[in-house]
Design brief:
332 residues; Quinone Oxidoreductase, Chain A, domain 1; Rossmann fold; 12 helices; 26% strand; ADH-like_N; Quin_OxRdtase/zeta-crystal_CS
Length: 332
Amino acid sequence: MKAMVIEKYGQTPLLLADRPMPEVGEHEVLAEIHAASINPIDFKIRDGKLRMLLKYEMPLILGNDFSGVIIQVGDKVKKFKVGDEIYGRPRKSRIGTFAEYIAVHEEDIALKPGNLSFEEAASIPLVGLTSYQALHDILQLSAGQKVLIQAGAGGVGTFAIQLAKAMGIYVATTASEAGAELVKSLGADQIIDYKTEQFDQVLHNYDGVYDTIGGETLERAFSIVKPGGHVVSVSGLPNARFGKEYGLGFLKVNLLRLVTRRITRLERKTKVKYSFLFMKPSGRQLEIIAEYIESGAIKPVIDRVFPFAEAQQAMEYSESGRAKGKIILKIK
């Protein structure tokens, strides 16, 4: 099969290569991939920035979510059959959606929302699961509460705003003037132009922050959250608490404690909890997300669709930060 691979960390451009067909485990399905999406984790894996958490053998097929059609099922698969149209986020040990085929565990997929094309469906799994786990599982927000979602016009933000509004949450978000109309159309209640305003000078007494930027922006987020509130980040550094939960071992946990000491001080000073989110695949949560989509509460936001052969150009466009919504690879 054809696949986009790297042969070493830091390699660019991606290489179009012939790779063996995936072996299908007894609890897995073999899917013909129709579309995949580009996500920031693809760059982080490519550049070796997640080597502390994830170990891969080379050559490595990149890609972390997809939509497609099942063409084979393992002996013990119970929920799916050949011909089912699915979407999913494979577990981190089985990534590789920038390819014509993938073997994926049945627990990591769900039936594709019936009202979406394959390209639209491919835009959902990673940002959908990340946002659901941030807002529902970690922040545990409920109707009437207030959240700041950073970078509202981006791939994560465009989904998270819609999910938060479907949950009855008041949403503030940051966006440029060019992205303001988009985030307003998605339901954002308050929009901060990050080029002319400082969000921490405007917002106060929030229940939570969903950070997608990290760095100094993450640190400033603590000042807008009420005591007992929560900041969750997909772009900040994992802290020692995460390291223990992830089973990283004594040395790595202490290294994380050292590099996140500023965040820990902010937690103590503001009485606001910090969590690093490393999203977990979940077919069950994808079923819940599909219900939101099929009801019309959430609609995909796609910036551009690239042909498979232009995967490198798609990666470069994503890294430019200019996209409003998701970037898709059309594989079939």
